[in-house]
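Priority: medium. Attachment 1 of 2:
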């Protein structure tokens, strides 16, 4: 018994085996005594669970094992297990386990207020309606079956309040007009606005519709085209002067706008490809190929 690793399940199995034996001719005089002790333990396990002890979790096995060792070593009138006497040893093991569960129950009851506060926080932070319904039903069944812990009713009330809150919130959300889905161009426009894109001389001269069109073109055409257009509009030197104290930071930020690499290497490579004398890999970074195209596209928007 003292070497078991699945305490609650083991007690259930022992109790079932004893019940079967009492119905057969293979019963032992001590079976009834063992059954009584096993039933006491099952009740104790349930009482411990009601105050927050996870009786079937792996954590429970560790807690029980550690406390059991301390109990066996601390009792002044402790009894030792007897070789070749399985009935006595089993009964002794069950008695030791009873002392352990009593200690656990006492400890968890003393911390019940903290446990309840924790549960209340979980309830009020949960938006999982179906899960809360199941928890509420489970608590309700325990109350009906008179397995009621003094605080179960309080928790059920909290759950009911949270369910009502979720229902009200859902009704409000359904009543609201649907929010438009932002396009790539919408998102890019917000990002560029933060960095003064629409203050550039070449951009300020465009009509409002042309400003929308140039953003859409940049968003749709990919990073190499965008870098070429930014270069033509003088946006890159503007960023260096007004917003970034290093090219590394600039490259990283621009890279975010186009969901490119985290370190901004592709931005750096495409900017470098625009230079006359560059050692950059032009097969990989192709902004230079768009230099004439961006000028034509801009002129069409004027």
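Attachment 2 of 2:
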């Amino acid at each position: 018994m003292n070497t078991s690793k699945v305490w609650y399940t083991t007690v259930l199995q022992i109790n079932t085996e004893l019940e079967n034996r009492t119905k057969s001719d293979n019963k032992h005089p001590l079976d009834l005594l063992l059954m009584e002790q096993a039933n006491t333990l099952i009740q104790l396990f349930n009482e411990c669970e009601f105050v927050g002890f996870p009786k079937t979790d792996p954590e429970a096995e560790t807690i029980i094992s550690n406390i059991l060792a301390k109990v066996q070593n601390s009792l002044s009138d402790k009894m030792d297990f007897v070789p070749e006497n399985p009935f006595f040893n089993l009964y002794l093991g069950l008695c030791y386990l009873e002392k352990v569960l009593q200690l656990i129950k006492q400890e968890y009851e003393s911390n019940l207020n903290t446990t309840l506060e924790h549960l209340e926080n979980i309830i009020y932070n949960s938006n999982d309606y179906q899960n809360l319904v199941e928890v509420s039903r489970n608590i309700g069944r325990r109350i009906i079956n008179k397995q009621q812990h003094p605080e179960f009713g309080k928790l059920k009330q909290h759950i009911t309040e949270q369910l009502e809150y979720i229902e009200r919130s859902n009704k409000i959300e359904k009543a609201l007009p649907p929010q438009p889905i932002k396009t790539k161009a919408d998102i890019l426009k917000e990002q560029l606005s933060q960095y003064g894109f629409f203050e550039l001389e070449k951009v300020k001269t465009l009509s409002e519709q042309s400003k929308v069109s140039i953003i859409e073109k940049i968003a749709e055409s990919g990073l190499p085209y965008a870098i070429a257009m930014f270069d033509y509009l003088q946006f890159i030197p503007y960023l260096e002067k007004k917003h970034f104290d290093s090219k590394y930071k600039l490259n990283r930020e621009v890279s975010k706008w186009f969901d490119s690499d985290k370190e901004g290497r592709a931005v750096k490579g495409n900017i470098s490809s625009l230079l006359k004398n560059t050692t950059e890999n032009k097969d990989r970074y192709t902004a230079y190929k768009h230099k004439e195209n961006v000028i034509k596209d801009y002129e069409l928007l004027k």
